[in-house]
Write a structure and sequence with these properties.
The chain has 100 residues and is α+β, with helices and mostly antiparallel strands. The protein has helices at residues 4-22, 30-61; strands at 71-77, 80-86. The model has no long low-confidence stretch (mean pLDDT 79).
């Protein structure tokens, strides 16, 4: 029989390896993988902030017309992240894909 702790450990190991592959980490131990993932998430957040700043700059420089780009915010939660996408009502052509 396989114990619950072994199943949990195996499941955790699989999740850590998935995190390693998603974040393109070359680390071997679990702590380093999590640190790399944290850095990767911070880089993504910075990219989102830069994009939002560019969008705001374009909106302020336009002649008062609504910008067709959506606004994206990312918040770090205790167990994951919350990604909000704000756009004009009935904005056509908006496609959002978020994978865990």
């Amino acid at each position: 029989m396989v114990s619950r702790e072994h199943k949990r450990g195996s499941s955790l190991h699989e999740k850590i390896q998935l995190l390693r592959s998603i974040t393109h980490s070359h680390a071997v131990n679990e702590t380093s993988i999590i640190v790399d993932a944290s850095k990767y998430i911070q880089e993504l957040k910075q990219k989102v902030e830069n994009i939002n700043e560019e969008i705001e700059a374009e909106q302020s420089s336009s002649s008062g017309q609504a910008d067709p780009f959506p606004m994206v915010t990312v918040e770090t939660l205790e167990k994951g992240f919350m990604i909000n996408v704000f756009s004009e009502k009935n904005q056509q052509g908006l496609l959002v894909s978020v994978k865990p």
